[in-house]
């Protein structure tokens, strides 16, 4: 069996452990003034000890061929949960500064990141790593599935877990940590050096605020939440329009969605000087065929 050390890492300012309701990932946070549909709860009321959608929390593990040398985090649980931290459990782990970071590009459906899906990037061991991840999800979770899975030639594995019973799809910190440990254990037991690179690094996170919603598959799940929709209207010569909507309904037979405006600053006329939407604007509906919607995400106020 392969023996590996491991490293938990967080990037101060990018990742945080927190159980309080009032933290957000700069530059985005969920704005309390976003109006609620029936059944839509402000995240400040529902996400205690959950990873906020703007947070994209990661429990990261560096897997190496060495005996594990543990160092424990000192301090009470509340201190650990309310402060950005940077701690490790391996004295021989590679410095975080040298770790590969996912390239920040515009997400696309199926990109293995914010767009979900599976991407192996020509890694011959990717399918086996994915199979093991699916086994761990099946055997050690009840209401989660893999949202995204990606491997890199340098031996990095990126996993994003989607918690289906959470309004935002966010697993708890304990759930992410438990999956990470179970997955690491399975990778240790998986086989010989020929199966995987000599060094592996694992990052497990939630989908994050910028997850792309699949049209129409994901829309009903988030119908009580405001969404940012980029779409192309007839006669616009391909120019995209961005507005913040609530989903009104999906017409499966017709292949379209009906949307209604959310009363937020982004939808108001600048000349209105901050006044809310009028009755006509609130009653207005926009019907968009699936193909005209280029990008749909959850709305995160800046």
TrEMBL record:
<dbReference type="Pfam" id="PF02576">
    <property type="entry name" value="RimP_N"/>
</dbReference>
<dbReference type="GO" id="GO:0042274">
    <property type="term" value="P:ribosomal small subunit biogenesis"/>
</dbReference>
<feature type="domain" description="Ribosome maturation factor RimP N-terminal">
    <location>
        <begin position="143"/>
        <end position="210"/>
    </location>
</feature>
<feature type="domain" description="DUF7912">
    <location>
        <begin position="212"/>
        <end position="299"/>
    </location>
</feature>
<dbReference type="InterPro" id="IPR035956">
    <property type="entry name" value="RimP_N_sf"/>
</dbReference>
<protein>
    <recommendedName>
        <fullName>Ribosome maturation factor RimP N-terminal domain-containing protein</fullName>
    </recommendedName>
</protein>
<keyword id="KW-0963">Cytoplasm</keyword>
<dbReference type="InterPro" id="IPR028989">
    <property type="entry name" value="RimP_N"/>
</dbReference>
<dbReference type="Pfam" id="PF25498">
    <property type="entry name" value="DUF7912"/>
</dbReference>
<keyword id="KW-0690">Ribosome biogenesis</keyword>
<dbReference type="InterPro" id="IPR003728">
    <property type="entry name" value="Ribosome_maturation_RimP"/>
</dbReference>
<dbReference type="InterPro" id="IPR057234">
    <property type="entry name" value="DUF7912"/>
</dbReference>
């Amino acid at each position: 069996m392969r023996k590996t050390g491991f490293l938990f890492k967080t990037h101060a300012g990018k990742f945080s452990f927190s159980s309080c309701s009032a933290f957000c990932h700069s530059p985005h946070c969920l704005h309390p003034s976003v109006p609620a549909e029936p059944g839509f709860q402000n995240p400040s009321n529902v996400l205690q000890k959950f990873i906020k959608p703007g947070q994209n929390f990661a429990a990261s593990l560096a897997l190496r061929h060495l005996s594990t040398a543990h160092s424990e985090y000192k301090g009470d649980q509340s201190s650990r949960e309310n402060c950005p931290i940077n701690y490790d459990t391996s004295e021989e782990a590679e410095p975080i500064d040298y770790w590969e970071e996912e390239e920040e590009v515009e997400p696309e459906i199926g990109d293995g990141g914010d767009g979900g899906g599976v991407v192996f990037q020509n890694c011959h061991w990717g399918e086996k790593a994915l199979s093991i991840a699916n086994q761990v999800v099946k055997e050690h979770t009840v209401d989660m599935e893999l949202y995204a899975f990606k491997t890199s030639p340098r031996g990095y594995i990126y996993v994003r877990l989607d918690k289906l019973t959470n309004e935002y799809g966010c697993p708890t910190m304990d759930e992410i940590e438990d999956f990470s440990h179970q997955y690491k254990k399975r990778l240790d037991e998986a086989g010989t050096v020929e199966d995987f690179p000599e060094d592996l690094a694992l990052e497990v996170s939630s989908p994050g605020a910028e997850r792309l919603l699949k049209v129409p598959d994901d829309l009903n799940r988030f119908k009580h939440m405001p969404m940012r929709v980029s779409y192309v209207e007839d006669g616009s010569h391909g120019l995209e329009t961005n507005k913040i909507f609530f989903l009104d309904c999906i017409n499966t037979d017709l292949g379209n969605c009906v949307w209604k405006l959310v009363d937020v600053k982004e939808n108001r006329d600048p000349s209105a000087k901050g006044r809310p939407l009028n009755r006509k604007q609130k009653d207005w509906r926009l019907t968009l065929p699936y193909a005209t919607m280029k990008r749909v995400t959850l709305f995160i106020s800046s």
